[in-house]
Design brief:
Layout lengths: L5 E5 L4 E8 L2 E8 L4 H16 L8 E5 L5 H18 L3 E4 L1 H13 L3 E9 L2 E4 L2 E4 L2 E4 L4 E3 L15 E5 H5 L10 E3 L12 H9 L28
Parallel strand pairs: 1-4, 4-5, 6-11, 11-12
Antiparallel strand pairs: 1-2, 2-3, 6-7, 6-8, 7-10, 8-9
Length: about 230
C-alpha cells in the first residue's frame, strides 16, 4: 500500500498520464493525445490537485517518466517535473517507461517475468527484461534499442513463462514466434502513470531521489550493447 503523497506523470509516448496519490486516495488521468501533451499536462495536474484538495507543497515527492519514448515527449516529462519541483523544492524520481509497463503487468496480472517494448520507429524497438522482486519490477538487462528480428536467446530466456507488452510487440508480433514461453499481452501497450507509484515510493523511501536540476531523461538510443546488470541472473 502506498503511504507517501506522490504526484507522477508521463508524456513519453502518445499517451499522457498523470496520477496523484494523496492521503490514501488516488486520482488519475490517462488519455492518448499525440502532440497535445505540452498544452494539456499542466491544466490536468491542476485539475487533479483541485479534486484532491491538495497543494504541491503538501506532496512528498514527484515522479516522472524519463523515457525511453519520443524525444519530445520525454523532454516534456522531464521539464514539467523539473518546473514543479523547482517551485516547491520537492525531490524527483525518474522511472523508466519500460519499467512502468512491466509493473502494470505484475500488478494487474501477477506476471513475474516481463519483456516491455516501445515502438522506436525506424524499424526498431526499445526493449528490456524485468523480473519481480519484493513486489517491484527490477531490470535484468540493460534497456536497449534493437531491430525486432534480431531478438534471440541472448535477449529472451526460453525457459521461464513470460509476458511481452508494449507497442513494440503490437507492431512486430512475429518477433516472438520462436519463443513459445512468451505470451503477448495486448491489453498493455502504453505506460500508465498509476504504475509508477510503487517505484517512486520505493526510491523516495530509500533516498534515491534527485533535485530538479539533476533530473535526466533516458533516451536509450546510445545503448549499443546488451549486458547483464551486476547481481542479476
Amino acid at each position: 500500500m502506498i503511504k507517501s503523497n506522490i504526484l507522477a506523470l508521463d508524456a513519453s509516448t502518445e499517451a499522457l498520464s498523470i496520477v496523484l496519490h494523496f492521503q490514501g486516495q488516488t486520482f488519475h488521468h490517462f488519455e492518448e493525445c499525440p502532440q497535445q501533451h505540452s498544452q494539456k499536462i499542466l491544466p490536468l495536474v491542476d485539475e487533479l490537485l483541485t479534486k484532491a484538495n491538495c497543494k504541491l507543497k503538501d506532496l512528498d515527492v514527484i515522479g516522472f517518466g524519463q523515457g525511453p519514448g519520443s524525444f519530445t515527449g520525454v523532454r516534456i516529462s522531464v521539464a514539467i517535473a523539473q518546473g514543479l519541483a523547482y517551485s516547491t523544492n520537492l525531490p524527483l524520481v525518474g522511472v523508466s517507461t519500460l519499467a512502468i509497463m512491466a509493473q502494470q503487468a505484475f500488478e494487474q496480472n501477477g506476471s513475474l517475468s516481463v519483456y516491455p517494448s516501445i515502438d522506436a520507429r525506424m524499424g526498431e524497438i526499445y526493449f528490456a527484461h524485468y523480473q519481480v522482486q519484493n513486489n517491484l519490477m527490477l531490470l535484468v538487462n540493460q534497456e536497449c534499442v534493437i531491430k525486432p528480428d534480431l531478438l534471440n536467446n541472448d535477449y529472451i530466456a526460453t525457459t521461464e513463462p513470460s509476458v511481452a507488452v508494449g507497442t513494440g510487440f503490437k507492431t512486430y508480433p512475429d518477433a516472438l514466434n520462436d519463443f513459445e514461453n512468451v505470451t503477448i499481452n495486448t491489453d498493455i501497450t502504453l505506460p500508465d502513470a498509476r504504475y509508477m507509484l510503487a517505484h517512486v515510493e520505493a526510491a523516495f523511501l530509500a533516498g534515491d531521489v534527485v533535485k530538479a536540476s539533476d533530473a535526466q531523461p533516458k533516451y536509450v538510443r546510445d545503448t549499443v550493447t546488451w549486458k547483464k546488470l551486476p547481481g542479476r541472473e
